[in-house]
Amino acid sequence: MLVLGIESSCDETAVALVRSDRSIAAQRIASQDEAHRPFGGVVPELAARAHVDRLTPMVAAVLAEAGMTLDDVDAVAATAGPGLIGGVMVGLVTGKALAFAAGKPLLAINHLEGHALSPRLADASLQFPYLLLLVSGGHCQLLGVEGVGRYRRLATTIDDAIGEAFDKTAKVLGLGFPGGPAVERAAVRGNARRFALPRPLLGSAEPHFSFAGLKSAVLRQWQALPAPGDSERDDLAAAFQQAATDCLIDRTARALSVFPQATALVVAGGVASNQHIRAALAALAARHGTAFVAPPLWLCTDNAAMIAWAGVERLALPAAERAALGLVDGLDAPARPRWPLDPGAEPVRGAGVRA
Ligand code: KG4
Ligand code: ZN
Questions:
Q1: For 119-125, which contacts have Cβ atoms below 8 Å and span 24 or more sequence positions?
Q2: pLDDT interval class at 170 (50, 70, 90)
Q3: What is the pTM of this model?
Q4: Which of 61, 103, 122, 333 could anchor a disulfide with 295, C-beta 3.0 to 4.6 Å?
Q5: DSSP state, 345?
Q6: Cα 184 to Cα 182: distance, rounded to the nearest angstrom
Q7: Counting ligands in written order, which one lies closest to the CA of residue 269?
Q8: How far is ligand 2, taken at its centre, from the CA of residue 112, in Å?
Q9: pLDDT over 80 (residue 354)
Q10: CA 114 to centroid of ligand 2, rounded, Å
């Protein structure tokens, strides 16, 4: 089986051809960092226009590189949300047009499901159920992954996503864009003990997250410095990264205790490429006697191979099960700016409207 995947929900334009044996026939990922850098963050309108310019030629290039045509593809999988709606529409409409032209099924994939299943693309031995820590620019969740299309949200953030906190910290410290990797590089040089920062929700009974207070504390400490220089910048980056890591570890430990059936602790999403966080999670899993799975770095940040792979996983389900789970799409599949993986999850007390 071969699936063409398309990803365009944020600032990466990506196309991939993935086989059910986990091999990648070809793939491309085009980052838009240069376009957004002058603004210090992703500008949705610029992102959508860049996806329009790049996507169709990228599909052609990926097919050409693999020596294939659309006739060789079993299905077209496109991200249908959640994300920046202009970009999601560009990718989904492109996917629909290709599926319609080639007479192949369209699979409207939840971007979060792409991240959630991506570790199984890299590691054939990873079985359900597993505990997933999904840490990205827009989300910070702990999910019990019970099977394809079966996700139980155990925790979410009551305010900011952790990636957002990394990005804001980078902005405050003048570390540039994209923020997460810049904070990590500065933190390697810094002394995490020089500044005392809060660890929101540490020790609380439910495994939810909060990062707004930590982010504001970074701003206050930075503004209080009379003449901040490189060493203060590095030290505050290190203190922030350590505080954020402590929160992740404490909350994930709590989730491991409420989801004891997990066969592994798995991390995915852009923030999962942070080496300090990966090492701390590996140590936590070792303490719990649980396997730890972290996908290769390129698979943590946005890409289309994970979207194609979610399509492969979906097609591998028996048709009746796929239908029962609502995983069959028509060409009228909607683009969704918000799309929780576990629609039944209760809103968290104290949280805003974010899913
Ligand atoms: O999954 P992703 O590529 O896009 C979303 O779906 O959000 O995640 C992007 C987020 C950004 O907030 C970025 O700053 C963060 O992941 N990130 C990192 C690192 N690399 C990317 N955060 C911390 N350390 C990193 N090395
Ligand atoms: Zn993502």
A1: 119/266, 119/268, 119/293, 119/294, 119/295, 119/299, 120/309, 120/313, 121/18, 121/22, 121/295, 121/299, 121/305, 121/306, 121/309, 122/22, 122/295, 122/296, 122/299, 123/293, 123/295, 124/22
A2: very high
A3: 0.94
A4: 122
A5: P
A6: 5
A7: 1
A8: 7
A9: no
A10: 8
Q: What are phi and psi of 41, to 5 degrees?
A: 180, 170
Is residue 353 over pLDDT 70?
no
Probe target for ligand 1 pocket from 37, 160, 301, 303, with the most ligand atoms within 8 Å of CB: 301
Q: Give the pocket of ligand 1 (CB within 6 Å).
A: 10, 136-138, 163, 166-167, 178-181, 184, 269-271, 273-274, 301-302
- As given in the structure block, the two tokens for residue 346 are 């209760």
Q: How far is CA 108 from CA 6, 80, 95, 332, in A?
A: 10, 5, 9, 10
Residue 40, pLDDT score: 81
Tell me which ligand sits closest to the C-alpha of residue 137.
1
How much distance in Å is there from the Cα of 180 to the middle of ligand 1?
Answer: 6
Can you list the domains of the chain with their CATH numbers?
2-118+299-340 (3.30.420.40), 128-294 (3.30.420.40)
The edge-to-edge listing of strands for the beta sheet with 150-155 is: 150-155, 140-147, 130-135, 264-268, 291-293
- Closest Cα partner for 155 from 340, 12, 6? 340
Tell me the CB-side half-sphere exposure of residue 135, using CA atoms within 13 A: 30
Residue with the smallest CA separation from ligand 1 atom 8 is 270
Tell me the CA–centroid distance for residue 166 and ligand 1, in Å.
8
Among candidates 287, 289, 294, which has minimal Cα distance to 262? Answer: 289
Q: What is the 231 CA–ligand 2 centroid distance (Å)?
A: 32
pLDDT digits (tens, 9 = 90+) for 297-338: 999 999 999 999 999 999 999 999 999 999 999 999 999 999
